Amino acid sequence: MGTKLSKFIQTWVPQIDTILENDIQRDADQQRLAESMSYSVNAGGKRLRPLLTLATLQTVGHPIDHVILKVACALELMHSYSLIHDDLPAMDNDDLRRGKPTNHVKYGAGMATLAGDGLQTLAFQWLVDNNLNSSKQAELTLALSKAAGPHGMVSGQADDIQFEGTRLSLKGLRKLDRNKTGALIRYAVEAGLIIAATPKSDRKLLLQFAELFGSAFQIYDDILDVVGDEKAIGKPVHQDNGKNTYPNLLGLDQSYSVLSQTVARAKQVLYDAQQLSGIDTSLLVDFCSYFKIKDEK
Asked: What is the mean pLDDT of the chain?
């Protein structure tokens, strides 16, 4: 991990955690529901998505205050909702997440479902319950709706269920991953650009980076299911045998190769953005150190 990213994480993760640990309770009116919502949100996630929003803001030179920080945290609520529902018996039926019992194991499937519902709707509340100007609030809400909804994350989840046990083509796998995982990661960068009022004509390269980073993230997650250690990654491994993943489609070695190529393209796009716009993209480049390529081990 790059020095710049390490310092960035040390600065912002404690502040993200403070909001997520305190503000959910304030906005929930049922104690058991609030506990269930907070349990998954505060179970030890990396906070990658809000960090990407904040890193985008820093990259384009926009200041970050408490209001903007909480807006960035809304995405962590949306992400946590998706994980709770993914783990449910009707979906992946997983018992472990981030090294802890999943929400439905601890609170029951009914309350876990409601916790996910609560986090999804609270995410939109956190986008607009502030003093940002209304045009930014509207653009953020529309962008997150598209990223999380039936043309984004939910579409990918539906493909994941429908085609389990059926081998997709590489094109089909890319579509599944682009929606299921990539859409919220793309939004993380897009949210920073919206808050900073970056002209749409100047957003293309950073959004292209976000799409490549999201693709790399899912490829790496697929690889970890094969080679990862359950204690290290905090969830069961070898769970994807019947699913559409890069190792199942291409094999492990080719998956590493595609991951390496995708990360290289992401870095090149950031270099191009720096050359074109004069912005310092080195912090976003450091995010690519998240992926441990086979030859680097």
From this structure: 93
**Is this structure's pTM higher than 0.90?**
yes
Q: Which of 86, 85, 79, 44 has the alpha carbon at shortest distance from 240? A: 86
Distance CA 7, CA 278 (A): 23
Q: Are 80 and 45 in contact (CB under 8 A)?
A: yes
What torsion, rounded to 10 degrees, do the Cα atoms 148, 150, 151, 153 define?
40
72, 73, 77, 82: CA torsion to nearest 10: 50
Quote the pLDDT of residue 236.
Answer: 58
| Sequence-ordered list of residues with C-beta below 8 angstroms from that of 241, at least 6 positions apart, any chain | 248
Q: Which residues contact 53 (CB under 8 A, 6 or more apart)?
A: 71, 72, 75, 188, 189, 191, 192, 195
Asked if residues 13 and 73 have their Cβ atoms less than 8 Å apart, the reply is no
Burial code of 236-245, b = ≥16 C-beta within 10 A, e = fewer? eeeebeebbb
Q: Among 274, 264, 250, which residue's Cα sits nearest to residue 295? A: 264
Residue at 159: amino acid letter = D
CB-based contacts of 265: which residues, under 8 Å, 6+ apart? 212
Give the count of beta carbons closer than 10 Å to the beta carbon of residue 296.
8
- For 151-180, what is each residue's pLDDT tens digit? 999 999 999 999 988 899 999 999 999 999
